[in-house]
Amino acid sequence: MRIPVHQLPHGLGLDLPAAATAHAAGMDLPAAIPEGEIWTLAPGQRRLVPTGLVLAIPPGFEAQVRPRSGLALRHGLTVLNAPGTIDADYRGEVAVLLINHGEAPFELRRGERIAQLLVAPVASWTWLAEPTVEALGDTARGEGGYGSTGR
Q1: Where are the domains of the chain?
Q2: DSSP letters of 2-24?
Q3: Quick one: which H or E segment has residue 143?
Q4: Of 6-10, 121-125, 127-131, which range is least confident?
Q5: In the sheet that 27-30 helps form, which strands lie side by side, from edge to edge?
Q6: 8 A C-beta contact, residue 78 and residue 99
Q7: Residue 145 has what pLDDT?
Q8: SS3 call for 146
Q9: Which CATH number fits the domain 5-121, given the four candidates 1.20.120.1760, 3.30.1300.10, 2.70.40.10, 3.40.50.300?
Q10: How many CB atoms sit inside 10 A of residue 48's CB?
C-alpha cells in the first residue's frame, strides 16, 4: 500500500518515517520541534508534539500512533492516548501526545523518534437494536470483568 504524505514547512529536512527492519510492523515518527530548541517534559508532564506530517490514509484503514518501547522502558515516556487513531478522513498534522511517567525530566530534540505509526484495516459495523435487543446470549465467561480470568 502506498500512502500519500505531505511534509509541512516545520517538518522539512526531517526524514520520512521508515521501517527500521525488514519485518518491522511500524515506522517511527519524528519530533518536528524547532531546530536548536530542547523541549523538556518534567515527570508527570504531557505535551502535544508535532511531526510535521499530514497523511492521506485510504478508506477502510486507520493509522495508529503507539509508544516506542525503548523510550517507555528507559525513560517512562509514552503516548498518553495509546493507541492514538488517525482516521482515513483526517487531513491535519499528525501530532503525538506524550507523557513522562518517569522519575527524571526528559529532553526532546528535533528529529528524535517519539512514537510508532502503524496502518491497520478497520471493520465497519452497524448496531442491531430493534428497538432494543433483549438478550445477547450466554457465554462461559458471562459478566466476568476486570481480572475475572486471572491476574
Answers
A1: 5-121
A2: ---EEE-GGGTTSPPP--SSTT-
A3: none
A4: 127-131
A5: 27-30, 113-121, 61-66, 84-86
A6: yes
A7: 77
A8: coil
A9: 2.70.40.10
A10: 9
